[in-house]
Automatic annotation (TrEMBL):
Membrane topology note: Multi-pass membrane protein
UniProt keywords, alphabetically: Membrane, Transferase, Transmembrane, Transmembrane helix
Predominant place of localization: membrane
The protein's name in its UniProt record: UbiA family prenyltransferase
Entry GO CC: plasma membrane
Length: 283
């Protein structure tokens, strides 16, 4: 079956998960904005920050693409509309695109030693996650969460300084993403059986205790920022709203409404991003 150029381009964008890549860019920008208040105005580092944002976008795209390559057999049974199972993109083409995305990401990461180190580390971890560790998904949860949360430190590194505030934001984001990943595992338990080892498959109901820990740890960490790092009242307001939404996600999780819990987690994380931005407002 032949596909038009338009179909091919659409498939490439689907392979990249553009929304996830854009979120990575935004997180890098927020990381840079937060630490810029400590050193110098952001425009002085604008070029470096833009390079870091582009780098994060393409490394994220590479991670998404390689995941689809190794999940092609599963997707052929469960999600035939995805780029590879639908044959709009072949495995070989997806492999070339993955290498291209990674190379572009690493090229733009050449800002300083820290950004290069983080970029290489994430390429290695994302590749290991999809290839070697994909069947041991309970470890993959932490890799995905680490990759998502490190974007804040990546942005800060582009400016040249990593503050306690950005470390706290990174930890809070890490906890939130682990909670969401485990929630997704509960949602996908039937699909993953016999294919991947997840916390719910490995520990059954006991896995909920692990998820609950991260559900609680994320908002508590964010609130600690206001208490110990002297962040402003606008930040606290944003965190309180995010905590309320996160509590709703927790409630849905306990009621086994995993799909809805995931969506609430995403909403809470988006509100948290707004709170992180509000933390730099001078009042």
């Amino acid at each position: 079956m032949k596909f038009s150029i338009k179909d091919k381009l659409k498939a490439v964008l689907e392979l990249m998960r553009v929304k996830n890549c854009l979120m990575a860019m935004i997180a890098v920008l927020i990381g840079a904005m937060v630490v810029s208040q400590v050193v110098r105005p952001l425009p002085f580092d604008a070029i470096n920050v833009i390079l870091a944002m582009i780098s994060a976008f393409f490394i994220c795209a590479g991670g998404q693409a390689i995941n689809d390559i190794f999940d092609a057999k599963i997707d052929a049974k469960l999600n035939k509309k995805k780029p590879i199972p639908s044959k709009r993109i072949t495995k070989n083409q997806a492999t070339v695109l993955t290498i291209l995305f990674y190379c572009v990401g690493l090229f733009f990461a050449q800002i300083n030693e820290i950004t290069i180190f983080i970029a290489i580390m994430m390429v290695v971890l994302l590749t290991l996650y999809s290839s070697v560790l994909r069947k041991v998904k309970y470890l993959g949860n932490f890799i995905v969460a680490l990759g998502t949360s490190l974007t804040f430190i990546y942005g800060a590194s582009a400016v040249g300084v990593i503050t306690n505030t950005i470390i706290l934001f990174t930890i809070a984001a890490f906890f939130a993403n682990v909670a969401r990943e485990i929630t997704k595992d509960f949602e996908d338990i039937k699909k993953d059986k016999g294919v991947k080892v997840t916390f719910p498959i490995l520990l059954k109901e006991k896995a909920k205790s692990i998820a609950i820990f991260f559900y609680v740890a994320s908002p508590l960490t964010a609130i600690a920022g206001y208490i110990f790092l002297d962040l402003n009242i606008l930040y606290l307001g944003g965190v309180v709203v995010a905590t309320i939404v996160f509590a709703k996600a927790y409630e849905l999780f306990v009621k086994r409404k995993y799909s809805l819990a995931q969506k609430k987690c995403k909403q809470a994380m988006m509100i948290s991003l707004i709170a992180f931005i509000l933390s730099i407002v001078i009042i």
